[in-house]
Amino acid sequence: MGEQNHSAGKELQHRTRTEAPAKKNWHPQAYTLGAISNFMSTFLTFPIYKVVFRQQIHAMAVSEAVRQLSHEGPQYFYRGIYPPLLSKTLQGTLLFGTYDSLLCSLSPDGPHSLGHRWTAGLMSGVVEAVALSPFERVQNVLQDGRKQARFPSTFSILKEFNSYGLWGRLSLGYYRGFWPVLVRNSLGSALYFSFKDPIQDGLAEQGLPHWVPALVSGSVNGTITCLVLYPLIVLVANMQSHIGWQRMPSLWASAQDVWDTRGRKVFLIYRGGSLVILRSSVTWGLTTAIHDFLQRKSHSRKELKD
Fold it and tell me: Repeats (Solcar): which ranges (predicted)?
């Protein structure tokens, strides 16, 4: 009986991902649950993210970053959380929703090849970068301890950006550091979606509970993807933490500056990587598991109606 249940669950999981009829590309319930899961995971892992951000900016050890935050006081501990809460909620809907829609457009009848998954993931990452880059920009300014006196709130940052001209609002304000964000998000999404299902299918063959393969697949795949692109994460954090017209280095100059300030050592570029593993494991694991759970439930209800 256990083997029969496992086989049935595996068959349902496979049909859920491969049938994907074009008539029903969008699943509002999946977006809602994905948004909630991203909201919760972002709130729980935000302290980790803030420590990582301080390491990326100042190239300091974990203990030193924690000591710096403790010295600033608890009133600043969750400073800058509102932009990531909003952006991650939107990310849960945009990333998975755009990917599913593009995948069905590229291959309406399935099965979906690696090329289809890569292309759909790449384009969904582009959409994510365009929509969410301003949120990340504001978040990075808020989290920089050097900006607390000048910009005590999100409103003060928005006021500064809106004081620029139209082009300045984009290039110096909301979309500063956009090109590395675009590369990071597009490649990250392509890698994540290309290998998420193969890893999950391989784990499902081991007879594990249905939620374990999705959780482990999202955790492992998201973590590896994040670590591969970690230098871009550091570059984005440094570019987006700057404010004003006085210092506007090019992308290459910014990358060279980060490399020089890290002593031209790779291990200093990757300082904070251990905490990225923890944060990515929790965030992507939960998001993938919840999204997979909702897909299976939705498909089961559809079969009952049919």
Answer: 25-105, 112-202
Phi then psi dihedrals of residue 209, to 5 deg? -55, 150
Other Cβ atoms less than 10 A from the Cβ of 273: the count is 17
pLDDT in tens, 91-107: 888 888 788 788 888 88
Per-residue pLDDT averaged across 117-143, rounded? 91
Ordered DSSP codes for 262-295: TTT-HHHHTTTHHHHHHHHHHHHHHHHHHHHHHH
Q: How far apart are CA 226 and CA 231, in angstroms?
A: 9
More confident residue, 45 or 1: 45
Residue spans of the domains in the chain: they are 27-304
Give the pLDDT confidence score for residue 245 in this predicted structure: 64
pLDDT mean across residues, the chain: 80
Q: Are 193 and 121 contacting, i.e. CB atoms less than 8 angstroms apart?
A: yes
CATH of domain 27-304: 1.50.40.10
- Three-class SS of residue 210? coil
